[in-house]
Amino acid sequence: MTRRPSRVPAALRRARFAPAVLEVLRRLDAAGHRSWLVGGAVRDLLLRRRRLDPADLDVATPARPEQVSALFEKVIPTGVEHGTVTVLGPGGVPVEVTTFRGEGAYLDGRRPSSVVFLSEVDEDLSRRDFTVNALAYDPLGGELRDPFGGQDDLRRRRLRAVGDPAARFAEDGLRPLRAARFAAQLGFALDPATRRAIRPALAVTAKVSAERVMAELSKLLLAAHPAAGLALLDATGLLEVVLPELAVRPPAARRHAYEVVRRAPRELPLRLAALLHVLPRGGDPAGGAEAAARARQLLVRMRFPGAVAELAAALAAAQGCVLAAPRPAAPRSPAEVRRFVAGVGRERLAPLLALWEADASAARPPARSRRELATLRALRARIARVERTRPPLTSAELALDGRAVMEALGLAPGREVGEALRHLLERALEDPGLNTAEALTSELRTWWARRPGRAAPGAPG
Fold first, then answer.
1. Which helix (H) or strand (E) holds 77?
2. pLDDT tens across 111-139, in order?
3. Is residue 259 part of a domain?
4. Number of domains in the chain
5. Could you give the CA distance from residue 376 to residue 360 in angstroms, rounded to a whole number?
6. Spatial contact of 399 and 427, defined as CB atoms under 8 Å apart
7. Is the domain of 168 the same as that of 291?
8. In 3-state terms, what secondary structure has residue 344?
9. Confidence (pTM)
10. Max intra-chain CA distance, the chain
11. What are the tRNA nucleotidyltransferase/poly(A) polymerase RNA and SrmB- binding domain coordinates in residue numbering (predicted)?
């Protein structure tokens, strides 16, 4: 059946595309290869999300990779076997160009066993995952191709698989995760048939590499509607594949975690910490090294970058959870506040308090949330008062450094120097007034003399 081109909406007609992208389209068109912008960029323009960065604009063409390469001076063969090359347009701007293609059987649940190059754009769109991504726009000819009703689904705020959803998900186990991610990014609901097709495909999703799962989960967590995406993972069984440690937590704990993620700042370590802060703490109820180590091990297994895993694990462990019983009391005295800030570290204090605020805001009933937020406001005020005095919170801020300790005690570099500095820091946290060279030297000599088998420096042996 011949399909008439869709009427071009104003959002596309008024869009201004990068000169490099238009030049690539013009040169392909002049050579007899009518080419199109496809996928998410067209979708986002129709949603008026204004995603016009050249890196987000994918060009689909009937030209074969060797034909594309012959038309441009600078071409990078980024994925020739799948029909993709990167053209360096004017100013060195990269533009990804992919030949229309069909795909053979998916034997590993992730990649097609073969690729067949095609000549029609609608055939290329038929292999896309969701109708809202199966859109193509030719800005030179002013034509929109929408063979699967993607515009209607955009109006209905609906995610619907192209063709048979069971077949789509059985082909590629990443697609169910993409469904949850798009739901989180766009705020769309899943079409019922598409939603029902996810659970039978869980075994296929389990074959997807940890790196790809991590990438999808990261995008979901940083989306505008992360709680909706997480709830979808939960309801479809995907959470058992992605994060089984969270899937076995009680439903109330999981729902609370999703709400804390929604309220947390849109930074990956903080949202990961919000997601994991409801995990059981074992024998480490106060959130020390054991809880952090368990969370870090989980995130490393999921292939999150080391720095992200380290910060997220530390924040989740230090935060605890408003659902915990009993919850550790907030520090009150100046000395307790100084030890708290020293233990957290100044660089991690702001994200920790932001996570605490998200946790308190998500508490239920509302009266409990108000109490938790009042406790947090009081702690912030106490921290501000303490910080105004700029007390020493690390060994580097002490009036004595390691060299001074060695000179005072006649020591060589070694473990005892570190022990001495830790003792002095503990005393300065208790009483910042001791942080002078004279007072710390006196404290140091007293501490050293009291150690078993040690005499004060200069004393007869």
1. strand 75-79
2. 665 678 889 999 999 999 999 999 999 99
3. no
4. 4
5. 8
6. no
7. no
8. helix
9. 0.87
10. 105
11. 187-247
